[in-house]
Design a protein that fits this description.
The model has no long low-confidence stretch (mean pLDDT 94). It is built from 4 helices and 11 strands. By secondary structure, it is an alpha+beta fold.
Length: 184
């Protein structure tokens, strides 16, 4: 019988924690994610299957329990399920024209929180993140430094930053540096 070998995969942000007295940085728990593309005719059926209304307005999101849908474009959403459900299976019975791509292992997320969270993010993100322009529930595909990210404001002083796994160390390092520079 042949000997079987297994590789232990280290999570990219496994040892990432820190921030400063005014900014907390921590990796988000693992989650399932899909990139969902659909025409408007399929939105109602997809929303019903997901158990939440897919947002149809720019910079908005919707959340039900541990599942969120973030509007990224007129026919594009990022769906995040913190319960790690098989989102492709959830949508398998939906008729209509749509496509899903499981990106659960492509993305990782960092939770940025505290009274200096907004300032730390603005060190690398040119978008206006003030509460009156980017309220709780707002989301956007934008940049942080030189990396593309998706940003979701989950509370007045808390953001979920999604980035590709290959950019996680760069984004985390830049966030760490920015957090150390924030003075409130």
């Amino acid at each position: 019988m042949a000997e079987t070998h297994h590789a232990k995969r280290k999570l990219v942000l496994e040892d990432f924690h820190g921030g400063s007295p005014v900014v907390s940085l921590k990796p988000a728990a693992p989650a399932s994610r899909i990139s969902l593309r659909a025409k408007s005719e399929a939105v109602a059926a997809l929303s019903e299957a997901l158990g939440l209304a897919l947002p149809e307005t720019s910079k908005t999101s919707s959340t039900s329990g541990l599942r969120s849908a973030l509007w990224l474009g007129p026919d594009e959403w990022l769906v995040i399920d913190q319960a790690e459900s098989d989102l492709t299976a959830v949508l398998s019975g939906v008729s209509g024209l749509f496509s899903t791509t499981d990106i659960s292992h492509r993305n990782v997320a960092i939770i940025v929180s505290g009274p200096g969270a907004e300032a730390a993010l603005n060190a690398g993100c040119p978008q206006d993140l003030s509460l009156n322009v980017f309220p709780v529930g707002a989301c956007s595909r934008t940049i942080f430094g030189k990396a593309e990210i998706v940003l979701l404001r989950v509370a007045d002083d808390t953001f979920r930053l999604e980035c590709w796994r290959s950019f996680a160390e760069y984004v985390g390092g830049l966030l760490q540096e920015a957090a150390g520079d924030v003075v409130v």
